[in-house]
Structure to design on (430 residues):
């Protein structure tokens, strides 16, 4: 058997032990490079090619043992801690909505939420077993495509409650609310490409930040702007640029956001900040909702008012103030436990980021954390008077098919990145 055939046979035996075929090409290349370097060293030491090959193979060890070790190192893994917490949050949300369904006799509420969870579960599983790295090549298409659809929504969308909706076959889609998620996913790929080709500059960072920010500002949906800006900041920090880039970017954000608020913000939007700081300035007017939310929480006994209790003082109980209703019926202990679950999920995701070696994967995770936990904690803090009231849906709890499917898709992407953290291509020797 020739030297090349002996090496190829050895590598084949190694790969036969590794069930995940996605890593076979990378391992084959890595082992081939390793053998080439070893054989070259032994040839320089005076051995013949046949002897050098035999010694290199012997040094490598039994191919079955090597293959089994690599199989353990590179097999996909599910982060069951994240799956468990997501399942608990979904269960709490369903029970809360079912209580509201009983209190308001709204049979459509729980049924539609179940549909959203079922569709979301299918989407989560589909994303979980898909190679997320393939998404990177479409990053610019996704970025500019989202820009075009957002512009079309602003110009020709259907106005509902002061916000333009994208009309799809007669069904309105809250595309302005969805667009920050699409932008951040796209920008994670764009930032990765810049880093790989040494094109990461403050000019690029600013030029890609401004157009979506302007369009979202024109959309008059404050939380979409907050999500986009927060996600963009997370991506900039996660790429670990020079301090000058970070300082310049933050100065630019402060100037741009301040200018957009001055030019486009409505008086009632600015009033929210004033009356959030002191709602009792106008207790029967613009401070009313904050006060009623606090009263609802304070009126809950240790274990709440009971399953199915009605709460008429607050609007949008199924979405904006679902946490207030949860505390009202189940009590502050359940509310605190729910908050702790959110903190635990955040810590699990931060831990996952540190274990992901792929730059694109770590950037996506950084953006996903902002996109998920900004509405999660804002909704809770808004309910207890620690954040200005705004239209925001509590992830996995608040009502809405599109909202639920989107959050499930986010978790599917997070679990996908973690699952593939050990099967990224190995470093290839030159």
């Amino acid at each position: 058997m020739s030297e090349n055939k002996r090496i190829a046979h050895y590598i084949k035996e190694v790969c036969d032990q590794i069930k995940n075929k996605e890593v076979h090409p990378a391992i084959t290349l890595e082992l081939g490079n390793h053998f080439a370097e070893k054989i070259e060293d032994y040839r320089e030491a005076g051995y013949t090619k046949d002897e050098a090959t035999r010694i290199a193979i012997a040094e490598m060890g039994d191919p079955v043992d090597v293959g089994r070790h690599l199989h353990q190192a590179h097999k996909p893994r599910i982060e069951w801690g994240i799956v468990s917490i997501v399942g608990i949050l979904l269960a709490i949300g369903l029970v809360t909505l079912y209580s509201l369904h009983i209190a308001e006799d709204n049979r459509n509420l729980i049924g539609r939420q179940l549909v959203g969870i079922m569709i979301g579960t299918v989407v989560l599983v589909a994303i979980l077993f898909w190679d997320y790295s393939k998404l990177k090549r479409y990053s610019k298409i996704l970025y500019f495509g989202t820009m075009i659809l957002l512009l079309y929504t602003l110009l020709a969308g259907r106005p509902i409650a002061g916000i333009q909706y994208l009309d799809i076959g007669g069904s309105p889609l809250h595309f302005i609310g969805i667009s920050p998620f699409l932008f951040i996913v796209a920008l994670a790929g764009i930032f990765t490409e810049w880093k790989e080709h040494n094109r990461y500059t403050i000019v690029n960072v600013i030029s890609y930040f401004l157009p979506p920010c302007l369009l979202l500002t024109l959309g008059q949906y404050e939380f979409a702007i907050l999500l986009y800006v927060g996600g963009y900041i997370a991506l900039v920090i996660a790429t670990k640029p020079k301090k000058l880039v970070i300082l310049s970017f933050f100065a630019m954000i402060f100037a741009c956001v301040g200018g957009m608020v001055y030019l486009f913000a409505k008086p009632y939007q600015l009033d929210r900040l004033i009356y959030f700081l002191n709602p009792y300035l106008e207790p029967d007017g613009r401070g009313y909702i904050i006060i009623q939310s606090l009263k609802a929480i304070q009126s809950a006994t240790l274990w709440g008012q009971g399953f199915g209790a009605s709460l008429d003082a607050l609007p949008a109980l199924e979405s904006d103030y679902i946490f207030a209703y949860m505390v009202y019926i189940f009590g502050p202990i359940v509310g605190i436990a729910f908050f702790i679950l959110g903190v635990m999920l955040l810590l699990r995701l931060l831990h996952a980021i540190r274990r992901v070696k792929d730059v694109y994967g770590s950037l996506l995770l950084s953006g996903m954390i902002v996109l998920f936990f900004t509405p999660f904690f804002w909704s809770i803090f808004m309910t207890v008077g620690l954040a200005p009231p705004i239209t925001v849906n509590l992830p996995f709890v608040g009502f809405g098919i599109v909202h639920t499917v989107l959050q499930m898709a986010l978790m599917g992407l997070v679990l996908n990145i973690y699952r593939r953290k050990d099967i990224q291509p190995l470093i290839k020797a030159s």
Observations:
- Confidence is low (pLDDT under 50) at residues 425-430.
